[in-house]
Write a structure and sequence with these properties.
Helix content is 8%, strand content 51%. It is mainly beta. The longest helix has 8 residues. The radius of gyration is 16 Å and the shape is globular.
Length: 154
């Protein structure tokens, strides 16, 4: 079965466990993800440093066998929609996302509640292996299902 991508954005991400947050953080956001039980749906609440809150419903569909390439579709929610959908059963993942911009690259570093740091590099339209030398990589977890948000949620 082919996957219709008319409204989806394809994400090709590489993920790495890293030893620290590098210099160059331009913004830090608090994120709570809720993975809706039995679905490919995720509710996400993002809190900006200035207090603005964005809530959205997303669907991620795998394009191949691994977690590195997914088609993502998002809908932005108002308070009433959020309240209805947040009542659905699901697992949570809380993290603080540091956006690092250096040498023309943008890297998201997710700091999980246990202190684990996972860097995500979005490769855009084409797969890439570009990794900045300033990123202190401990291990490449791009193809490791246990390091996806849905697997880390509890």
């Amino acid at each position: 079965m082919s996957i219709p991508l008319k409204y989806a954005v394809v994400e090709r991400e590489h993920r790495y466990l890293v030893a620290g947050v590098p210099d160059g953080v331009v913004v830090t956001r608090d994120i709570v993800d809720r993975y809706v039980t039995g679905t490919r749906l995720r509710l996400r609440e993002v809190r900006e440093p200035d207090g603005i809150v964005t809530r959205k419903l997303g669907q991620k569909v795998r394009l191949d066998e691994g977690p590195a390439e997914v088609a993502c579709t998002n809908f932005y929610l108002d308070d009433a929609e959020w309240e209805v959908l947040a009542a659905l059963p699901g697992r949570h993942l809380r993290k603080r996302r540091h956006i690092v911009e250096r040498d023309g690259l943008r890297v998201a570093i997710d700091e999980h509640e246990d202190g684990t740091l996972v860097a995500e590099i979005d490769d855009g339209d084409q797969p890439s292996t570009l990794v900045p030398d300033w990123l202190d990589i401990v291990h490449d977890v791009t193809d490791d299902e246990s390091w996806t948000g849905g697997s880390l949620a509890s």
